Amino acid sequence: MAFAQDRYDANFPMFAKIDVNGPDTHPIYRWLKDSIPGDIGWNFTKYLVNRQGQLIKRFDPQETPENIGAALPDLL
Hints:
There is one protein chain. With 76 residues, the protein is of the alpha+beta class. The chain has a single domain, classed as Glutaredoxin (3-Layer(aba) Sandwich). 29% of the residues lie in helices and 12% in strands. It has helices at 2-8, 27-35, 65-70, and strands spanning 46-49, 55-59. Strands 1-2 form a two-stranded antiparallel ribbon. A hairpin with a 5-residue loop joins strand 1 and strand 2. The chain is globular. It starts with a helix and ends in a 6-residue tail after the last helix.
């Protein structure tokens, strides 16, 4: 966190660094990957979760905001 604050003047709340793959995978990512299998190749992988807490879809880092936005109306 200090790196982001010092280097990029980030002044918003940040979480601690966690593992998303491997034996020390954080429980939230373990649940996400159990629901939609596959290692996370990059930290911009996005997940869409509905109001009931069900995982709906996984979006790879290359997905455009338009593609992600198209999945939202059915959940609103």
